[in-house]
Write a structure and sequence with these properties.
- It is a single chain.
- This protein is an alpha+beta fold.
- The chain has one domain (6-465): Endonuclease/exonuclease/phosphatase (Deoxyribonuclease I, Chain A, 4-Layer Sandwich), CATH 3.60.10.10.
- The chain is 19% helix and 18% strand.
- Helix 2 packs parallel to helix 4 (118-128).
- It is globular and about 60 Å long.
- It starts with 5 loop residues before the first helix and ends with a strand.
C-alpha cells in the first residue's frame, strides 16, 4: 500500500501553476477507529507502557505463543504501522481509552486546551515514534511519525448516571452509564496534529432534550417503542446527546483557522425495538450538521452559544456508525446507492449538505475484495446497495456485512486532491496489518481493528494577508 502517491504531488504542481500568486498548503486529514480500547480500566496504559514486551518485527509468524497482553501490544504496533503508512498531518483516533493524567477514569469536567492523556503520550512516544516494518516483517519499512500538538477530550462513556437508563430493573453497568462503557473512559478519542491547536470547544454535557426537534421527545414511532414512553421524565432530564464527545479542534494552518470537527456517535444497535441507539446516533450526526450551520441553540461546555460562522473552513471526521444505504442506522431504505429514499437518513444529513464537499469518496481495492472474500461467514454483502469499494469497516458478513461508517468530510470551500482507505488486498504484504473478519488472531480478533484508516488530502489557502503579499508562485508542503 502506498497511500501517498504521485497523483498527490501532481495535484500540488498543477495548483501552483494554475494559481501563480497564491500560497497554498496541502494537508492530509485522517480518522481511524483503531480499537485501542481495552476490557478493563488501566489496561491500555499498561500496554502502551511496554512496547518492547513483544518483538513487533517477528512475532506475527509465532502468534500462537504470545500471551494475551503481548497480543494487545502487537495490535497497538500494527495500528502505529498503519498510521505511519498513512502519514496524516491531522489525525483522529477513535476507541482510545481516556485517562486523567495517568488515572484511568472519566468525568464531566472538560479537558483544557493542550491536554493530552498519558495514554496519548505513551502511544505517540512508544509506538508512533518507533519505526516499523522492514525486512523481518516482509513489509516496507515505515518511518517514525511525530506530532507536536495533541488533544484528548473527556468522554461520557462509562460515566455512571445513577439511573436505570436501559430499563433492566437494576442500576449499574455499562447500559446505565451516560453512554455505554464498562468503565469510565472506555472508547474515548484523541487527536494528533502537526499544526497548532489554537482552541477547543466540547459538547460533552449538552443534553439531548435541548436539541430542537430531537428524536428523544419527538419520536414518530407509535406505541411503547416511542422514546418518550421508553424514557421517564427523570431520565430524559439527564440524558446527554453525545455518546463520547463532540469536539471542535481549531487548527492554525497556513495562517487560517480550520475547524477539525470530531465525534464518534453511538452504534445504532445493542438496543431493542425502541431503537434508542439508532435514534441517538441520528441526532448525534445532526448536531454536527447544525454546528456547521451555526445553530444558535448549541451551548458548549464552557457556556458559549452557537456553531461555526458562515464561510468557516472545516473537516468533519470520525466513526459515525452510519452507512447511507446499508446497515442498521436510523433511515428509510435507499432507492439507489447514492440517493436516500424518503424519510430520515442519519448520514445523509452530512453527505447531502451543500456545505460539505463530497467530490471524492475514499475507496480501496481491499474493501471490494473483502465483500466476496472466501472466508466470509455470510452473504449480507451481496444484498448491499452501496459500492463495496467505499466500505471502511469489516463487520460480520452474516449481519450487517461490511459498511461505510468512517468519514473525513471537508467543507465545500476546501479543495480535495485525493482520498483513500487503508485496506490492502490479500496480495499486498500490508494485508497482515488488517486481516479479515472470521479469522481470529490478535486482540478483538483483528490484526489491528475492524475499522480501516480513512484519509483525505485538502488544499488550505493562505490567509488573505499572505496572499496579498505573495510576490511569486509558492506552494508550501510540510509533509515528510
Amino acid at each position: 500500500m502506498k497511500p501517498f502517491t504521485s497523483h498527490h504531488w501532481l495535484g500540488l504542481v498543477l495548483l501552483a501553476v494554475s494559481s501563480p500568486c497564491v500560497l497554498a498548503e496541502t494537508v492530509r486529514f485522517a480518522t481511524f477507529n483503531a480499537s485501542l480500547n481495552r476490557d478493563n480500566a488501566g489496561q491500555l496504559l499498561d500496554d502502551l507502557s511496554m512496547p518492547r514486551t513483544v518483538d513487533h518485527g517477528r512475532a506475527w509468524s509465532d502468534i500462537g505463543s504470545l500471551s494475551v497482553q503481548q497480543r494487545r501490544v502487537l495490535q497497538a504496533h500494527h495500528v502505529a504501522e498503519i498510521l505511519q503508512k498513512v502519514r496524516a498531518d491531522v489525525l483522529l483516533v477513535n476507541e482510545f481509552d481516556f485517562d486523567r493524567d495517568g488515572v484511568a477514569t472519566a468525568d464531566s469536567t472538560p479537558a483544557p486546551l493542550g491536554y493530552a492523556s498519558a495514554a496519548a503520550r505513551l502511544f505517540h512516544d512508544n509506538f508512533l515514534a518507533l519505526a516499523h516494518g522492514g525486512a523481518d516483517t516482509g513489509r516496507a519499512a515505515s518511518a517514525p511519525l511525530r506530532y507536536a500538538h495533541r488533544y484528548t477530550p473527556n468522554t461520557n462513556t462509562g460515566v455512571p448516571s445513577g439511573l436505570d437508563l436501559d430499563n433492566s430493573g437494576s442500576v449499574g453497568g455499562g447500559g446505565d452509564a451516560l453512554a455505554f462503557g464498562n468503565f469510565p473512559g472506555q472508547f474515548g478519542l484523541t487527536v494528533y496534529s502537526r499544526h497548532e491547536i489554537v482552541n477547543v470547544r466540547t459538547f460533552q454535557n449538552f443534553l439531548w432534550k435541548d436539541m430542537p426537534g430531537n428524536l428523544l421527545l419527538n419520536d414518530p414511532t407509535p406505541g411503547p417503542d416511542n422514546l418518550a414512553a421508553f424514557y421517564s421524565p427523570a431520565k430524559r432530564d439527564v440524558l446527554r446527546l453525545s455518546s463520547k464527545n463532540h469536539v471542535d479542534v481549531s487548527l492554525r494552518i497556513n495562517g487560517q483557522v480550520v475547524h477539525f470537527l470530531v465525534a464518534h456517535p453511538t452504534p445504532p444497535v445493542f438496543d431493542g425495538p425502541e431503537d434508542r441507539n439508532g435514534k441517538r446516533n441520528h441526532d448525534e450526526i445532526r448536531l454536527l450538521k447544525d454546528y456547521i450551520h451555526g445553530a444558535s441553540y448549541l451551548v458548549d461546555d464552557a457556556g458559549k452559544r452557537g456553531g461555526l460562522a458562515p464561510g468557516a473552513m472545516f473537516v468533519l471526521a470520525g466513526d459515525f456508525n452510519a452507512d447511507l444505504c446499508d446497515g442498521d442506522s436510523y433511515k428509510a431504505r435507499c432507492l439507489a446507492a447514492d440517493t436516500p429514499g424518503p424519510g430520515p437518513n442519519a448520514i445523509a444529513q452530512l453527505l447531502l449538505d451543500p456545505l460539505v464537499n463530497t467530490g471524492l469518496t475514499p475507496r480501496s481495492a481491499g474493501a471490494t475484495a473483502a465483500a466476496t472474500d472466501p472466508d466470509n461467514n455470510g452473504l449480507a454483502n451481496q444484498a448491499h446497495l452501496n459500492d463495496p469499494a467505499f466500505d471502511t469497516a469489516d463487520f460480520n458478513d452474516a449481519n450487517p456485512g461490511n459498511l461505510r461508517v468512517d468519514y473525513v468530510l471537508p467543507s465545500a470551500n476546501l479543495k480535495m486532491l485525493g482520498a483513500g482507505v487503508f485496506w490492502p488486498t490479500r496480495q499486498d504484504s500490508d494485508f497482515a496489518l488488517v486481516g479479515t473478519f472470521n479469522k481470529p488472531n490478535l486482540y478483538a480478533s483483528f490484526a489491528s481493528s475492524d475499522h480501516k484508516a480513512v484519509w483525505v488530502d485538502v488544499v488550505v489557502p493562505a490567509a488573505p494577508s499572505a496572499r496579498s503579499g505573495a510576490a511569486k508562485a509558492t506552494l508550501k508542503v510540510t509533509r515528510p
